[in-house]
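W.,

You were right to be curious about this one. When I first looked at the sequence I had no strong expectations either way, so I just let the prediction run and decided to look at it fresh. Below is the sequence, 136 residues in total, followed by the output.
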Amino acid sequence: MRVIVDTSIWSPFLRRKHPISAQNLQVLEQLIREKRIQMLGIIKQELLSGIKEQAQFEKLNDILAGYPDLLADSEDHIVAAQCYNTCRKKGVQGSTVDFLICAQAVNHQLAILTSDKDFQSYAKFLPIRLYSEEVE
């Protein structure tokens, strides 16, 4: 199964400002070796946003170009809105970006590797698979 690696994992790994946990580092390195990472356009946008130096932007963009892109289509946005509505009815708040990630995971049968605890809340009400729960 291919895996969406969320910004919460990529950012500390690529930018090294905040250390990534040893467990997440090991999992990420394994996914990279096995070529199982599915890059989402929205995650690439998040990772590239806020970089002040053009050279650093280009270097990171080159690194990310090595992972296949999955761009959101109309159906992904519709399912994202449904995910938002489902969670909202259950009292769970989330961002538009998070629900787009959930929708793409559902629509394309992808797991999600994240350190963002919000996804655990979403998983109670949405048919998403968190990679930490996968038995591989």
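Here's what jumped out at me. DSSP finds seven helices and five strands in the chain. And, maybe more interesting for your project: The first strand starts at residue 3 and ends at 5.

Coffee later to discuss?

I.
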